[in-house]
Each structure stands twice: as C-alpha cells, then as structure tokens.
Amino acid sequence: MEKTAAHLSRCKLTNRRWLPLLAAAGLGVSIAVVHAAQPDTLTSRVDALFADYNSDSQPGCAVGVIHQGHYALAKTYGSANLEHNIPLSTQSVFRVGSVSKQFTAAAIAILAVRGDLDLDADVHEYLPDLRRYDYPVTIRQMLHHTSGMGEYEGTNAYELTPGKNFRFGNEDYWTIEEFYQRVRQQPLALRPGERFEYSNIAYFLLSQVVEAVSGKTLRQFADAELFGPLDMRASFFNDNVNAIVPHRADGYAVLEDGSFEIFMTNLDWVGDGGVYTTLDDFIKWDRAFITGGVPGGEQVHSLMTTADPLTIATMARDSLDMGSGYGFGLEVGTYKGHKAHVHGGSWVGFRAFYARLPDDGLSVVMLCNREDALENDRYLALLDIAMAELLPAE
Q1: Of 2, 36, 1, 5, nearest to 355 (Cα)?
Q2: Who's near 40: CB < 8 A, 6+ residues apart?
Q3: Considering the domain boundaries, does residue 1 fall inside one?
Q4: What are the tens digits of pLDDT across the range 30-71?
Q5: The domain containing residue 352 runs over which residues?
Q6: Could you tell me if residue 360 is inside a domain?
C-alpha cells in the first residue's frame, strides 16, 4: 500500500519515504514560511519540467525547493479539484503515502528516548495478542524493515492468504480494528534479521504499538508531539477518511485515453501511511532536520538518520546510488556524491517525493494528486535541477 526509495527507478516509488524542521527544547515554535527570491533559471527550469501539468483541466503537483531553510521555489501546477475548477495552492492538503513512515518512526523514537519503549524488545511485549512467531521480532527490526513481516500488497510469501493477493484501493473497506484483527494473525514471511524486505504491515503495527504504550492513537500522539510543536497546523494522520478536511486535494487516476477519474481511499488505518500535509507545512518538518530542532532532540534525529547495517548489506541496489540503507522511516544514502535522506510515497491517486541533502542545506518535495506523477523519473529531474542551480559547481 504505502511504501520506500532504493527501488526508485524500478518501482517508480511505489513505497518509499524521506524528512523534517524545528522546535526548541521541547517548546512549541511558530515559524513563518519565508519564500526566498527565486533564481530565474531555477523557476524557468522547474516550470518547464511541470509544464504538462500546468492546466486547470488536470490534476498536478505542489513543488518545493528548499535552500538553507527557506523556499527558493514553491509553486503549484494543476487543479486540486476538477469538478469545481479549484486550483492547487501551497495550502492544498495532500495524502503523502509512505512519506508518512518517517512520522510514525519519529513517534516510536520519541517514546524510546523517553524510556517508555525498548527498541530491542519483542513486539509481543506491547501487542501481546499478536500470533506467536517462531522467532522474536523487535521494534527496531520493524522500523528497519528487517522483521520478516509480510506485505499486504505483495505476492508469493507476502500474501495475506495463500493463493490470493490482496490489493486495497477504493473498493475494499475494513475498520482499523478489523484490519488489526486480520493482520495480527499473519505468520512471518521471512526469518527476522535475514534481510531488508519492505513491510507496510510492520509500520501499521507500529501505530498500534504507539497507542499501546502512550494511551493515545498515532494521530493524537503525532498532533501533540510532532505536528503541534512544529506548528504544522494542517498536518495529521487521517484515521477517519470521512472527516471534512479544509483545502483537501482530490486524488485522480489517469485513464488510457488521458482523461481522469477520482481515485480516493476509504481505508482509515495509518502508520504505514495516512499523513495529510501541505507545502506550507512541510518546510517546517524539513527545517527541523537542518537546524537540529527535531522533536525529541538529537537522539531522535540520530536514530532516524542512521542506516541499519543489515539494510545496507541487503537492500536492492540501483544505478542511482540512492537509499543505500534504511533508518527510521527514511532511506539513508548518497546521491551523486551527496549525503541524502529520501523517501517516496504512493497510494491511490496521490504521489509524493521528498529528498534532503543535509550537508548542503538543500531539499526538494513533490506533493501530487495524480497517480502518474512519479513516472519518467520526474522527481529526480527536479532534484537535479535544484542541485545544478543552487549548489556550487564542483
């Protein structure tokens, strides 16, 4: 369902994520979004990249290039709603798929740093009604995708039921409790610690761990501990997809004839995905990582941005040299010789991409409401343009 970036070119990001901003000493900090002057060539090149979306008659993307804590470019292309001709804006609310995983991981990291949770404890310590596995499965393994837990959108060993491949979209509906009751009975697909194998099930179960430990739903915990302190007022885990969301963009499928139809989800569960956010909010998350203001402090920052050695050894490689390992909800590696933290997201009619080059103070973010937005490596072209225009020539 919601996914990672080592397989960027191969999987077109159908399951990847990347990250955040600032809060001082646990105090809430309200930060105005500052839009820096846009270099003419940066603007013209990004405009050209998204020219095919720049129409009232089709959905598109909100695009940001962040440099040294400010937007060097923040623009939107296309419509938020085709029925009422509502254009996208920097306040449009998008579902971001697996880009959400870094927020789930941050919640777990905060609980661990406080001593409320042991990352190396067996998950059954917090969710005792899970089926008994043949091996212990730790919280840390679940965060790093080395738990051996299966995948509810996969095939073969990753099917929920042998012989049937479950795929969720806008045609299936389970409540959070119904889904948990189904997933908690699933056997492992691999021996824990065998290798990196992406698992949305693990991240959904982490949402249940947060609730078991804190007494708050993941949405409530994130509101209090992440989005609130960072003044991300339009951001939240949407665990009730029927709720009214001001400025929400509709998601769209692209049909064979080039026309569109609404493609939204009716699934409420979160953890593997489910975050709704805006371009105006996302810079605050990004800035926290650049400035050292991540909620929970430096220990949380370090946990999230340190790749597990097993993931470095066993994640699939591609020619991009990106996502060489997996941290907490982030792929951690290099891109063209630059340290990179990245993740992508894909769910129903929404696509998202986030890449941060922390040593360079440069990030890009794409929030899109059309299912083809990450095709043809458009997200990498955006990153390449930002690097070419804003980083010193090497």
Answers
A1: 5
A2: none
A3: no
A4: 334 555 555 689 999 999 999 999 999 999 999 999 999 999
A5: 8-390
A6: yes
Number of domains in the chain: 1
Residue 12 has pLDDT above 80, yes or no: no
pTM over 0.90, yes/no: no
CA neighbor of 104 nearest in space, from 24, 27, 219: 219
Which one, of 246, 236, 233, 240, lies nearest residue 265 by Cα?
240
Residue at 2 is within a domain: no
Q: Is residue 274 part of a domain?
A: yes
**Cα separation, 165 vs 158, whole angstroms:** 8
Confidence (pLDDT) at 164: 41
Q: What's the pLDDT tens digit per position in 73-85?
A: 999 999 999 999 9
CB < 8 Å & 24+ apart, contacts of 232-235:
232/21, 232/277, 232/281, 232/284, 232/285, 233/281, 234/91, 234/93, 234/276, 234/277, 234/278, 234/280, 234/281, 235/275, 235/276, 235/277, 235/278, 235/281, 235/282, 235/285
In angstroms, the first-to-last Cα distance of the chain is 39
Kindly report, residue by residue over 356-386, the tens digit of the pLDDT.
Answer: 999 999 999 999 999 999 999 999 999 999 9
